Amino acid sequence: MSRMRTLREHPSAVLLVMQLVAVLSYPFLDGSVAGRAVVGVVQMSVVFLAAWAVRRTPALSWVAVLLGGPAMVFTIFEALQPSTEWVVLVSAVFHVPFYFYVSYAMIRYLFHDDKVTRDELFATGAAFTVVAWGFAYVYAAAQVVWPESFVGIDGTGDQGWFKLLYLSFTTLTSVGLSDIMPVQDNARSLVMVEQVAGVFYVALVVARLVGLNAIRHSRR
Questions:
Q1: Would you tell me how many other CB atoms lie within 10 Å of the CB of residue 128?
Q2: 3-class SS at 160?
Q3: Closest Cα to residue 72, out of 51, 88, 91?
Q4: Distance between alpha carbon 74 and the CA centroid of its chain, in Å?
Q5: Which of 33, 92, 93, 125 gives the lowest tally of CB atoms within 10 Å of its CB?
């Protein structure tokens, strides 16, 4: 009972842990269709729960159903047919707005008061991972619309999903483009947008939490 209560009180922590578990487990499940589908659906389910827990507007539940439901279905389709372009594109069409809307809801949750709770600290990391997932789907869609938008160190054209997720994380954290690079102007413009998003996230969200925490300690 106490564990269930802890999970209800810290849904952002569950989301953050599950996102990181998905990142760590994906390389071992990439060769398995069932494995990819399970990771995708479980990860989407956790995002649903977190979005429900931190929602601050009645519209969020409707958005989650309208976008998240089809996104979950196409997560399975994409695991079954990862090379079918229209499946990848439609999957991204639903995933991208869903993830960005959830990240918006979580950031709004972070800004709804002037107190820094433990769950809000977890939400800071969870929202960051959700944004990274959203941009990874943006890149997946870009490869369909503009083939060979990215190039890897091995010189091949279209990149796999996990490589695009890796590119998204490295771009959002501003640590560099690693061994995956955009080679077409459209792809480069998308990467630049994510770079700006990463800088603004640190400047607005993280800096605000640090400032509020400093104010709380100074009052003591």
A1: 23
A2: coil
A3: 91
A4: 16
A5: 33
CA angle 199, 203, 205 (to 5 degrees): 110
Distances (CA, A) of 129 to 11, 113, 176, 212: 14, 22, 17, 22
Residues 19 and 43 sit within 8 Å (Cβ to Cβ):
yes
Torsion angle of the four alpha carbons 150, 161, 154, 28, in this order, in degrees rounded to the nearest 10: 170
Tell me how far the alpha carbon of residue 104 is from its chain's centroid.
11
Q: How many structural domains comprise the chain?
A: 1
Residue 155 tokens, joined: 């010189």
Residue entry with tokens 């760590």: 24
> How many residues are present in the chain?
220
How confident is the model over 141-189, as pLDDT tens digits? 999 999 989 988 877 678 888 889 999 999 998 877 668 889 899 999 9
Report pLDDT digits (tens) over 54-95: 665 555 667 777 887 888 888 888 877 877 889 999 999 999
CA distances from 187 to 1, 102, 134, 151, 194 (A): 48, 24, 15, 11, 11
Helices (H), 81-205: 85-110, 118-145, 161-172, 185-200
Contacts of residue 142, defined as CB under 8 A and 6 or more positions apart, other chains included, come to 149, 150, 186, 187, 190
Give the residue numbers spanning the domain of 172. 2-219
Gap between the Cα atoms of 166 and 19, Å rounded = 13
Collapsed DSSP state (helix, strand, coil) of residue 56: coil
What's this model's pTM, rounded to 2 decimal places?
0.86
**Structure tokens, 37:** 């589908």
